[in-house]
Amino acid sequence: MSLKVDRISKRYGDLLALNETSFEVADGEIFGFVGSNGAGKTTTMRIVLGVLAADSGEVLVDGHPVDLDTRRRIGYMPEERGLYPKMKVGDQLNFLARLHGLSKSDAASAVERWTERLGVEQRLGDMVSALSLGNQQRVQLAAALVHDPKVLVLDEPFSGLDPVAVDVMSAVLKEKAAEGVPVIFSSHQLELVERECDRVGIIAGGRMRALGSITELQARGNPQLEVFAPSAPPGWAAGIPNTVVLQEGKGRTLLELQPGADDQAILRAALATGPVHQLISRRPSLAELFREVVA
Ligand SMILES: Nc1ncnc2c1ncn2[C@@H]1O[C@H](COP(=O)(O)OP(=O)(O)OP(=O)(O)O)[C@@H](O)[C@H]1O
């Protein structure tokens, strides 16, 4: 299935939270949704799910507006989480699977499969409130998955997870994408987004400011050169034409190469300080692109 968000706008009183936001997620694609606090990610995801109505614009799944039936096929992990704290993990997941139309036996096997896959099968009889935050989050992911959704919308699924749980979450998302499910998730962990996503959207002030694969976004920024010259004194690179020093410390200097920069002139300047052990071409990271786009 594919997902298309087409020029949605949403106003809360005087605040225009979304201003003609658009993006598409193809089947099998993992889309990373990033933006500062309050940029409009949660609002967008709620509109995709249909728990919030847009003032204008529309959300299409496989080219059709989202109706009740399609909505039931979306797996959603809300930011505010939303499991019943005083209900047992197993009962809760069963309930959610049944609510989405699974038969009793299909629900039971889905609950077993996903709790095992997510490493919480020992906690089926525990109340959600008795679980650590990370385990609650695993259960929350199981809740988004038990009904075999055809679209996945996850609001900050990686926040607060330990590195092992991050790996589990990322493997599950890849697995669902490989089945053809469009996956959209929001995150402030930009290294993770850079690693996991096929495409990324950067939203600021309710508007999509940049959209594309990491490589496409990187092509918008200037190339960089990292120089490792252990005996170079601080400031050695200041004044090299068309270069900007981005970072400096412990003999490593990261330079931005603006149009007209001469890498050989940089190398000569570095050699003038002593030995040069490494010279590495880099592209801006998603975090750097983000700062540039949001600024
Ligand atoms: N129910 C509401 N009533 C009024 N304003 C709201 C409401 N929900 C969200 N907002 C405002 O809309 C804007 C977008 O909020 P939203 O939660 O979509 O941002 P976000 O990108 O998900 O942020 P974060 O990264 O902090 O979760 C914010 O300015 C927020 O204060």
From TrEMBL:
PROSITE patterns named in the record: ABC_TRANSPORTER_1, ABC_TRANSPORTER_2
GO molecular function (one): ATP hydrolysis activity
All residue ranges annotated as the ABC transporter domain in the record: 3-230
UniProt keyword terms in alphabetical order: ATP-binding, Nucleotide-binding, Transport
SUPFAM superfamilies associated with the record: P-loop containing nucleoside triphosphate hydrolases
Record SMART domains: AAA (SM00382)
Pfam families: ABC_tran, DrrA1-3_C
Superkingdom: Bacteria
InterPro entries: AAA+_ATPase, ABC_transporter-like_ATP-bd, ABC_transporter-like_CS, DrrA1/2-like_C, P-loop_NTPase
Record family assignment: Belongs to the ABC transporter superfamily.
Cited PANTHER family: ABC TRANSPORTER, ATP-BINDING PROTEIN
Listed name of the protein: ATP-binding cassette domain-containing protein
Origin species: Antrihabitans stalagmiti
